[in-house]
Structures are given as structure tokens and as C-alpha cells.
Design a protein that fits this description.
With 377 residues, this protein is mostly helical. It has 12 helices and no strands. Helix 9 (253-263) packs antiparallel against helix 10. The longest helix has 45 residues, at 158-202.
Length: 377
């Protein structure tokens, strides 16, 4: 019986077909290109969905941050009391600490208000006289004309300012809502995060559970390491700034130190911006010499933070190159403003650690891998 003839070869498989005339490097580039385009589409869709529900996303992120901070405290207290009571004590203690810091700022500003007004008026007059002298030689009427223009601008845009203030009040209500949801999530993350994570893993197909658990454990270890590290860096910066400003006699030293603490959560650019505000306060209240000393303080603290604190404190988290950190901060700020700048670096660090963990597990023999449940939320 005769064997049926082979089917005709496809033009792409024939040596003289199209594929033979396409260089191999171009074929590889095309294969990567469509995959990159597909990933970009997925990322774009994900960001669009998060943009629609950004308040929920921010609340969950803040809840994870609070849980990362409170879990060690709650675990320590749980040795001496029931865990629900330990979580409640840790949460209430954190709230009292934050409210106490805000009350201290308000009391400091209220006590120094009259002195600050007098010093600022004197300081602005001193700056005007210095700008009128060599080498600037600005005309004396320039500042009076500037003040009158500012007054006319404010009076002409009074309705806009009022509407902006009203929209700010509605924004304040949104912020309070997000904070309440974040605290609600943090309570459950702190109390029973392991059970929630285990339940989520059990909903997945059996073949994907182990990889998902490894990725989650690596993500949580990196996130908690980054959170604890950035808190320590921010606290160290705030203490250094507070001591320096108190030594220089700059007013509002405590509020400016707390501003430095909050700004340190934006890597690379947060601390210089906060210290620039301190330099402006020093210039208006204490003169050029003290302002220059504060500028020198900006340089010194920047060097300490970049070359000492971050390499040492962040050693337990994923260490990212400064270029990656800078690109992440700028990209996050462009995409989502201040919130994006704060969230970008931990998100990049978590994604990188997950990739490293999955790659390491792929290279390991079957049955060997990281612990799955103990280190997750």
C-alpha cells in the first residue's frame, strides 16, 4: 500500500519562505515586542481600575502600613494578654501618640504666634533692605508694588479662593473616610492576617497555591522591612533636624522636625523640600547666616541619609539602586501626585522581591522552597 504524500510545507517553514528572509534578531525582537505591548496594556488597565477605586487602594495600603508597624507591638503584648486586647491597646496607643504630636505642634505654634509675627515682619524688612543694597540694587518701590498686586489678585479671585476652601473641606471629609477605612482594615490585618492570607491561598487552584504563597511571603517581608526602615530613617532625620534647629534658635523647631519626619517618606526629594521650608523660616526670622547654616544642614543630612542610613537600615529589605528609586519616585509623582511618590518605591521593591523569590524557587529542586504561610500578612 502506497504511503500518502507529505502535506505541502508552509511558506513560513520552507527555506525559501518569508521566515528565511527575516533576520533572526528581528524575529526575537518582534516576539519580545508584542509581549511587552501586552504587558503594557495589562498595566494600563490595572492602573485605570485602581484610578477609579484609588481611595480604596490608598486605604488598603495605609492599612498594610499600620499593620506592619503594629504587628510586632501587638505580638509582644499578646504574650501578656488576649490578642484582641493586645491589638486594641497597640492601635489606641498609636492613635494617642499621633494626636499627641499634633497637639504639641498646635501648642507650639500658638505659644510662638506673636513672637513669630514680629520676627517675620522684621525679617522681611531686613531682606528687603539687603536686596536694595549691592549687589542686587533692586528699586525700593518694587516690594510695595508687589504687595499691592498681591492684594488686588486676592480680592479679584475671592470667589475662587472661597470655592477652593469649600472643595478643601470636602477633600478633608474624603481623607477622614480613607483613614477610617484604613484603621478598619489594619485591625483585621493585625489580628488575623495569617488566616486571611491562608483563606485567599485556598481559593486558588492547587497547582498555583505554593507559588502564590511564596510570592506573598516575599512581598510581606519586603514591605515590612521597608516600612520599618523608612520609619527609622524618618525618625533619625527628624531628631537630627530638631536638635540642629533648636541649637540655631530657629522658631518652630518642633513642627519643622515633624515636617521632616513626614517628608522623609518620599525618598530623595522629601527631606530637601522640608529642609528648604526650614531655611525659608530661618531666613525670615534669623537672617542670612542662620539660613546658610540650615542649607549646610540640608547637605549634611542628605549625605547621612544617602550613604549611612539607607544602606544600613534598609539592608533587610530589597536594596534598590538610587537611579531606580529616583525614577520610581518621579514616575509615581507624575501618575498619582504625592500619594504616588510615597507608594512608588515600596511597590517597586515588593515587585522586585517577588520576582527574585519566584525565580529562586524555579531554580530549586522540587519540594524545596521558602516558607509559605508564616511570613505573610
Amino acid at each position: 500500500m502506497a504511503t500518502p504524500p507529505d502535506p505541502p510545507a508552509s511558506p513560513l517553514e520552507h527555506p525559501s519562505g518569508v521566515e528565511s528572509r527575516v533576520p533572526g534578531l528581528l524575529r526575537v525582537a518582534a516576539a519580545y515586542a508584542w509581549r511587552i505591548i501586552a504587558i503594557g496594556i495589562v498595566v494600563r488597565v490595572a492602573f485605570s481600575v485602581l484610578g477609579e477605586f484609588h481611595r480604596i487602594a490608598v486605604a488598603v495600603f495605609l492599612g498594610l502600613v499600620i499593620a506592619a508597624v503594629l504587628r510586632p507591638v501587638a505580638g509582644l503584648l499578646a504574650r501578656y494578654m488576649p490578642r484582641p486586647l493586645a491589638v486594641a491597646v497597640a492601635l489606641i496607643g498609636g492613635i494617642v501618640l499621633i494626636l499627641g504630636a499634633l497637639a504639641l505642634v498646635g501648642e507650639t505654634v500658638a505659644d510662638q504666634r506673636s513672637t513669630l509675627e514680629r520676627e517675620f515682619v522684621t525679617g522681611i524688612d531686613r531682606i528687603e533692605r539687603q536686596l536694595e543694597e549691592p549687589p542686587f540694587r533692586l528699586p525700593p518701590d518694587l516690594f510695595n508694588d508687589l504687595q499691592s498686586r498681591i492684594g488686588k489678585l486676592l480680592s479679584s479671585h475671592r470667589s475662587t479662593l472661597i470655592s477652593t476652601a469649600l472643595s478643601g473641606a470636602s477633600r478633608l471629609l474624603e481623607v477622614l473616610t480613607v483613614l477610617a477605612l484604613a484603621l478598619f482594615c489594619a485591625v483585621f490585618f493585625t489580628h488575623s492576617g495569617e488566616k486571611q492570607w491562608q483563606w485567599l491561598c485556598n481559593q486558588l487552584p492547587v497547582a498555583a497555591r505554593q507559588r502564590f504563597a511564596v510570592a506573598g511571603g516575599a512581598a510581606w517581608r519586603t514591605f515590612t522591612g521597608y516600612t520599618h526602615g523608612i520609619l527609622l530613617v524618618a525618625a533619625t532625620n527628624a531628631v537630627l533636624v530638631g536638635i540642629a534647629l533648636l541649637a540655631l534658635g530657629v522658631p518652630l523647631a518642633v513642627p519643622l522636625a515633624l515636617l521632616e519626619f513626614a517628608a522623609a517618606f518620599i525618598p530623595l526629594i522629601g527631606s530637601p523640600i522640608a529642609l528648604a521650608v526650614a531655611a525659608v523660616v530661618a531666613l525670615a526670622s534669623k537672617g542670612v547666616l542662620v539660613a546658610l547654616l540650615v542649607v549646610a544642614l540640608i547637605v549634611v543630612i542628605g549625605q547621612i541619609e544617602g550613604h549611612l542610613l539607607h544602606p544600613i537600615v534598609m539592608s533587610w529589605a530589597v536594596r534598590l539602586h538610587p537611579v531606580v528609586v529616583a525614577l520610581a519616585v518621579v514616575g509615581g509623582a507624575v501618575a498619582a501626585g504625592v500619594i504616588g511618590a510615597v507608594v512608588a518605591v515600596p511597590v517597586v521593591a515588593v515587585v522586585w522581591s517577588v520576582c527574585q523569590a519566584l525565580r529562586g524557587r524555579t531554580d530549586e529542586p522540587e519540594g524545596v522552597g521558602a516558607r509559605s504561610g508564616d511570613d505573610s500578612v
